[in-house]
Amino acid sequence: MTAEPFRCGRVALMGPPNAGKSTFLNKCLGQKVSIVSPRPQTTRNRITGILSGKDAQVIFIDTPGIHQPHGTTHRLMTRAAWDALDGADALGVILDADLYARKAEFLENDIEPLRAPVAAEQRPVFVIANKVDLLGDKSRLLPLLERLHGIWPEAGLFPVSAADGEGLPALLAAIKSVLPPRPSLFPEDTLSTAPLRFMAAEIVREQLFLTLRQELPYFTTVEIEAWDEDGEAGDVEIHAVIHVARSTHKAMVIGRGGQNIKRIGQAARMEIMELLGRKTHLRLWVKVRDSRAEEAAFLRSFGPAPEAWF
Ligand SMILES: Nc1nc2c(ncn2[C@@H]2O[C@H](COP(=O)(O)OP(=O)(O)OP(=O)(O)O)[C@@H](O)[C@H]2O)c(=O)[nH]1
Ligand SMILES: [Mg+2]
Question: Which of 15, 183, 194, 291 is the least buried, fewest Cβ under 10 Å from its Cβ?
Fold first, then answer.
């Protein structure tokens, strides 16, 4: 009997906003590398998450949700998602199966931007029907799976729950089996290629989403202004600035008597401390920015636009 070769490759995770792409990635890794919120368009950049096992290394690339873009920001986010396909060995299309089991009419419109490119893919495609834990009666999934099979007949179909892990072992085994035989690209203990500073800023942004819910103004960004690891007893001191567009937004983020900013700071500090494995002090400021200059900086953070973008 010959031993299976070690396999390693990249898998781009794509899909409509809010489908559970980031939740799926975190669940596969058993740790949080990508932030999650009930609001669509939480992920703004490509995020890598690396799953290292004894037989394979899977490099997942989480992406912003793909949808019909309106305006420059959405176009840039959508581009960040499509760019993830470059160099990927396989593609995971994640869909909210519960949503389409209840509202079948939404499917066509939501997958429209993905439909033709995915159908034309030469690489292995995994269509991941997520959130099956929300379906009381699993037979409600069948018409959706049939439709998806009709749309992308070549793709593997996997009903899963990123929340409770149902279906993930079978899917991960299938993903590993299509990766090219080669040694790992990253050391075994690398969880992500994202710098810790970026991850810390994302954790603050996640807490903003979770605390403010629908009220969070879309252009809110978080910037790490200072990161001091030389504090007493090896503590890390982090200063983060939450940039908002208007003074009304600032009041919202701070909350009555400072209750929101306090909650955001406490929750983010706990998570960052876990990430760093060291005692952490987190100081937050809220600044009203010069909105035009700031929006330009926000857009620049996506990288230069290619000449022929739309
Ligand atoms: N019940 C249930 N909820 C889920 C599951 N997967 C994700 N969710 C929830 O769906 C919401 C969106 O999850 P995200 O992981 O942020 O989705 P996303 O696709 O990364 O979203 P964007 O980054 O905004 O495109 C969150 O409230 C998650 O908790 C699942 O399997 N079951
Ligand atoms: Mg996401």
Answer: 183
**Ligand 1 pocket residue status of 22, Cβ below 6 Å:** yes
Closest ligand (CA of 94)? 1
Distance (Å, whole) CA 109 – CA 105: 8
User: What pLDDT shows up at residue 307?
Assistant: 37
The helix, strand and coil proportions of the chain, stated in percent and rounded to the nearest 5, come to: 45, 20, 35
pTM: 0.90
Select from 94, 104, 96 the least CA-distant residue to 61: 94
Q: If you measure from the C-alpha of residue 220 to the centroid of ligand 2, how many angstroms do you get, rounded to a whole number?
A: 16
Model confidence pLDDT, tens digit, residues 1-22: 567 899 999 999 999 999 999 9
Instruction: Give the Cα separation of 251 and 127 in Å (integer).
Output: 43
Three-class secondary structure of residue 82 per DSSP: helix
Q: Which domains does the chain have, with CATH numbers?
A: 7-178 (3.40.50.300), 196-300 (3.30.300.20)
Judged against a pLDDT cut of 90, whether residue 234 lies above it is answered with no
Strands 125-130 and 90-96: parallel
